[in-house]
Specification:
Elements lengths: L4 E5 L9 H18 L5 E6 L2 E6 L5 H8 L7 E8 L4 H15 L6 E8 L8 H15 L4 E2 L6 E7 L3 E4 L3 E2 L11 E5 L5 H11 L3 E8 L6 H18 L2 E7 L1 H10 L5 H19 L4 E3 L12 H8 L6 E2 L7 H10 L3 H4 L6 H4 L11 H8 L6 H10 L2 E6 L2 E6 L11
Parallel strand pairs: 5-6, 5-7, 10-11, 10-13, 11-12, 13-14
Antiparallel strand pairs: 1-3, 1-4, 2-3, 4-8, 4-9, 7-8, 12-15, 15-16
Helix pairs in contact: 3-4, 5-6, 7-8, 8-9
Bound molecules: adenosine-5'-triphosphate and magnesium ion.
Magnesium ion binds next to loops.
Length: 412
Amino acid sequence: MTYHAFLIKYAEIAIKGKNRTRFELMLIDQIKLALRRCSGRFTIDRMYGRIFVNAQSEYDYDEVVENLKLVFGIAGICPVVILPVVGLDELKKTTAEIFGQEYPDRNVTFKIHTRRLAKNYPLDSQEINAELGEAVLTAYPEAKVDVHEPQVMVTVEVRERIYIYSHTIPGPGGLPVGVGGKAMLLLSGGIDSPVAGWMCAKRGLRLDAVYFNAPPYTSERALQKVKDLAQIVSRYTGPIRLHNINFTEIQLYIYEKCPHDELTVIMRRYMMRIAQTLAKSADCDALITGESIGQVASQTVKALVCTDDVCEMPVFRPLIGFDKEEIITISKKIGAFETSILPYEDCCTIFVAKHPVTKPKLDVIRSHEQNLSEKIDEMFARAIETDEIIQIDRDGEKILKHREDAPVEQAE
Ligand code: ATP
Ligand code: MG
């Protein structure tokens, strides 16, 4: 028995009224992107207030399900068998077959739920329920009917065709990428930031990303790791534009001019400033980081106050209240962990002080930053100008702007 279609279920909360159409159209866009990865031809139809993915050719069931499971906004995926309007005997036979296929154990309680919308069908819904229930019981005597709390619900919709579906494969939930606008993710090579990006994308944000690179102190392999992480996140979000910023000059200058126990805080203030400048020109309304309170010296509340001092746009820190173990669980679930733990150095780890301040004072930090006034504007401008932009998606990467400052190409 092959499935002809998939009924896409989504949580309807927050998508009432006018938002609903917008939500559905964006979900359809994301589903289309996911199906482009799959062999076979499909149409996506909004029918009866729901979304159906209809197979128009042979296809690989596992491949389609695996790809749909990456689409935020999908709460569940129901494989559907579609029949022309057939007589009762054939409907009984098919329903029993579907039940046997989906519940090989068969030792379950079930209920048939018929919706007869084609009023010319010769039996009414109650009669169809009774007939199909009996057909299943005859074929599989171990199964039992339970109309109140069945383990299995087999839905039969009689319309211009007959739709039969039963089990639901869980989707990732959330909202379709794009409905919530766009944000700039500060993506390092660690465990936290890919998870933070994934979590915001799950709430409907499209992502761009920025990586602060410190060549020659950091290697090509460290950059490759960040690109690989962006690619893992892009399986869920669609294409991500990664801004590869050369941060060496600014870091060395801070190192030269500022107290070493304040390096991390001041460096993070410059990361935020640069990220924000990029965010504005990339039409992003917020920044995202992987910070969680108290994880390291730069993530104490007082340090976060110093970081936020330079930000005009909201900074989303979805991991703020998470323990490392909780973050690792999500990192593994989204397939990033193995890459995140590869041992390549990060710019933060290279210029780190032995005893960083854990309670930096904002006025002190601001005044020490004045030591940088001579050259920092120039360096800041150079870091932005020499931004390399790499568009990353599941198929690979494409450089949109080279280090040599070639003009930005239009992304598709
Ligand atoms: P992660 O595991 O994400 O690297 P972390 O625990 O190592 O985080 P920090 O190094 O203090 O924490 O960085 C905090 C956040 O700042 C990161 O989650 C990330 O969002 C951002 N960040 C740090 N370093 C970089 C970098 N080199 N490039 C881009 N963003 C960075
Ligand atoms: Mg880090």
